[in-house]
Amino acid sequence: MSDEGSQKILLGVSGGIAAYKTPELVRRLVERCAAVQVVMTAAAASFVTPLSLQAVSGRPVRTALLAPEAEAGMDHIALARWADHILLAPATAHLIARLAHGLADDLLTTLVLATTAPVSIAPAMNQQMWQHPATAANVQVLARRGCRLLGPADGEQACGETGPGRMLEPAEIAAALLPGPSAQPKSALANVPVLITAGPTREAIDPVRYVGNRSSGKMGYALAAALARAGARVTLVSGPSALPCPVSVTRVRAESAADMHAAVMDRIADCAIFVAAAAVADYRPADPMPTKLKKDADSLTLKLVRNPDILTAVAALPDKPFTVGFAAETDAVEAMARAKLERKGLDMIAANEVGGAVGGFEADDNALLVLWPGGRRALPLQPKPALATALTQLIAERYAASASG
Ligand code: PMT
């Protein structure tokens, strides 16, 4: 992912109840054009999941000091050098004490020792702990070393007590760290209503069996999250998937292609952009059984009938939204995708090669070849959240061009 032109903020999250506010904090920082890399302490994961923070930051969250995979990519020293600023929020009494004593017993404290970047601390703890002489002394040590203190605020606390120790609100922290009236990005997707499909569909054979496919939903969910981060109002129509709903996205569940078709058609009139990332079954069993099929016969013939093509139906609407399809191809990827773009009357299509050793269905990484009338761009193999961010930028550019032309 390119960080060009962004303030690179390394957000260190420690284990306090205020950690639940950190997805919101990441969003507020990203709104101010920051690139955010989250590093969590082990205790922080009890209050907020790495997956949520990955979804909003668009980057895998780092937790372990000695993780061979992560160290091969960006080791802890490179991470310390990458940051323009280190923000510790929430900073618990324990984290503040460890920093004051120069401990380096996990990734976050090691990074703080290894960096030359300015460090800001947003404390969050019980008011008695904040006022304890030990904490006060530790905070003074950090302040003398040049750490900037953001808060804490005074007020009612999660523990029921009242006093100083509340973490500042995410918007206040973001504004203090990245001030400036023009900080809000001018996103072409700001407040734009987007409808996106993701995941597989299941076509019932009988009450317990179905015809399905290998889609996990990872690509479509990552794209829904990236579109939301870009300011769009996103509704995700999802086939069966175990993934959590991305932050700031409204999810509608659908089981079969017919369910998904109905869910999309019910909502499409309110949308300016439609993205079809779901792997929708092209066919369904003609006569699903009302009771479980018995295995009496030696062979079984299943008659399948065509499902509605949701993408084609949307693109054929008289007042169609800006319509983005996907194409999953095993061969002749560009030619097949270009044919789909033209045949279905789409504004854009994102083609991926499936069935190979890397990328496509179920994988964490993917590559896309994005085509539109008169243009193309190849987005190389990378984690799906980063790829989704790149595709979102492209959608924003083409959508803005279509709206102005
Ligand atoms: O979910 P993951 O495991 O992360 O995998 C991601 C993915 C490979 C599923 C995703 O990147 C992808 O390619 N999604 C589209 C899969 C697909 O159905 O491709 P297709 O070439 O068969 O269909 C073309 C387009 O028509 C797609 O936008 C599809 O959503 C749409 N379609 C297809 C059939 C149908 N009945 N209705 C549709 O809307």
Description of the structure:
The chain is α/β, with parallel strands linked by helices and 405 residues long. It folds into two domains: 7-177, 3-Layer(aba) Sandwich (Rossmann fold), CATH 3.40.50; 187-404, Rossmann fold (3-Layer(aba) Sandwich), CATH 3.40.50. The protein contains 14 helices and 19 strands. It has helices at residues 22-31, 50-57, 68-73, 76-82, 93-100, 107-114, 127-131, 133-144, 170-177, 218-229, 257-267, 310-315, 333-344, 384-404; strands at 7-13, 34-40, 85-91, 119-123, 148-149, 153-156, 162-166, 193-198, 203-204, 210-211, 233-238, 249-253, 273-276, 283-285, 304-306, 322-329, 348-353, 365-372, 375-383. An eight-stranded mixed beta sheet has the order 12-11-8-13-16-17-18-19, with helices on both faces. Strand 6 (153-156) and strand 7 (162-166) form a beta hairpin. Helix 4 packs across helix 6. The radius of gyration is 24 Å and the shape is elongated. The protein starts with 6 loop residues before the first strand and ends with a helix. The structure holds ligand PMT. Ligand PMT binds next to helix 10, helix 12 and strand 16.
List the helices and strands and how they pair.
Layout: E1 7-13, H1 22-31, E2 34-40, H2 50-57, H3 68-73, H4 76-82, E3 85-91, H5 93-100, H6 107-114, E4 119-123, H7 127-131, H8 133-144, E5 148-149, E6 153-156, E7 162-166, H9 170-177, E8 193-198, E9 203-204, E10 210-211, H10 218-229, E11 233-238, E12 249-253, H11 257-267, E13 273-276, E14 283-285, E15 304-306, H12 310-315, E16 322-329, H13 333-344, E17 348-353, E18 365-372, E19 375-383, H14 384-404
Parallel strand pairs: 1-2, 1-3, 3-4, 4-5, 8-11, 8-13, 11-12, 13-16, 16-17
Antiparallel strand pairs: 6-7, 9-10, 14-15, 17-18, 18-19
Helix pairs in contact: 1-2, 1-9, 4-6, 5-8, 10-14
